[in-house]
């Protein structure tokens, strides 16, 4: 190798090293920082694996994985334009399963062989498929009887589902979805005819910050080592998952009791 070629090679290696250092610094600056009261999380990805993955995928935000987060597109979110827009956001941030990415999208009702009538049993079968190594489930506008499918999934795991289940803006039975999900997030509330405060009925519009909320939820799921316990710590999980959003506990209009895992965005 000539002297000139050696010099060019050295320069190129120097530039590549400098570029990787700058990229690493930028990524570190973007990481969230939490206060002293934050919950300490155990991550599923080793530092060595993440560093190698980041190095191999410097041009995209996501890395190849065998894990999947099942994302159900239910009411309001299965509108063609809304669905396509959200899928594009999820593909950019996490990658789709068909490309080796994290997101396994399930569209209601078109992805169910029996249509609406067989929805609960078909959804349960999808979740329990041996082909899926699930890291979590995110429900968008969960339709009626979603909780039945989730209850069957709980039965499979003897009530110890090993990954988080989060419902965003569900339209299923309230008590059913609370009992089968670790965290439930609703839109704002309105007063009913008798003065009680109840969740908004669907107006066909998704929350204005829905894409950001969905992305931040999935990012947080990746940090969790299993499902969070349904204790007062869920309040802290919500604060860390949706940092900057204001919310309060959902209150049952009949009993007046607060649901420990059901939150309403202000």
Give a brief outline of the structure.
By secondary structure, the chain is an alpha/beta fold. It has helices at residues 3-30, 47-56, 80-93, 119-127, 146-156, 174-180, 210-223, 233-241; strands at 67-73, 103-107, 133-140, 165-168, 183-186, 189-191, 197-199, 247-251, 258-265.
Walkthrough of the structure:
The chain has helices spanning 3-30, 47-56, 80-93, 119-127, 146-156, 174-180, 210-223, 233-241, and strands at 67-73, 103-107, 133-140, 165-168, 183-186, 189-191, 197-199, 247-251, 258-265. With 266 residues, the protein is an alpha/beta fold. α6 (174-180) links the parallel β4 (165-168) and β5 (183-186). The radius of gyration is 21 Å and the shape is globular.
Give structural attributes.
two-stranded antiparallel ribbon; globular; alpha/beta; disordered N terminus; 7-stranded mixed beta sheet; 266 residues
Topology:
Blueprint: H1 3-30, H2 47-56, E1 67-73, H3 80-93, E2 103-107, H4 119-127, E3 133-140, H5 146-156, E4 165-168, H6 174-180, E5 183-186, E6 189-191, E7 197-199, H7 210-223, H8 233-241, E8 247-251, E9 258-265
Parallel strand pairs: 1-2, 1-3, 3-4, 4-5, 5-9
Antiparallel strand pairs: 6-7, 8-9
